[in-house]
Amino acid sequence: MIQSVLTIGAILTVASLVLSFILLKATPKEKFMSYIPGAVFFAAGLILLLFATFGKVEIMGAGLGGWGIASLFAAAIGLIITAILDSFQNAKA
Fold first, then answer.
1. Closest Cα to residue 45, out of 23, 69, 29?
2. H/E element holding 63?
3. Which residues contact 47 (CB under 8 A, 6 or more apart)?
4. Chain segment 25-67, per-residue pLDDT in tens
5. Helix (H, G, I), strand (E, B) or coil at 58
6. What angle do CA 50, 9, 46 make, to 5 degrees?
7. DSSP per-residue string spanning 13-48
8. What is the pTM of this model?
9. What SS3 state is found at 71?
């Protein structure tokens, strides 16, 4: 189960980074649209952790708690890297 949670977390992290990078390049420098994928993954992680307390549900080898932890991991790493990329993009101007 730990391996599936780590795999899901890595895949969600890459998805978050790709979406954030696309939004970072597509929006003006004054907008904060690139942080929305991280915020969505964070909210989804909290909701999945909440639903994990109600009963045992497994999706692709991981319970809802595992999906919540993977989503929170993806949000944290995605937001950190997005902030670094955003600061480098704004420093060039």
1. 69
2. strand 62-63
3. 68
4. 998 888 889 899 999 999 999 999 998 888 787 777 778 888 9
5. strand
6. 20
7. HHHHHHHHHHHHHHS-TT--GGGHHHHHHHHHHHHH
8. 0.87
9. helix
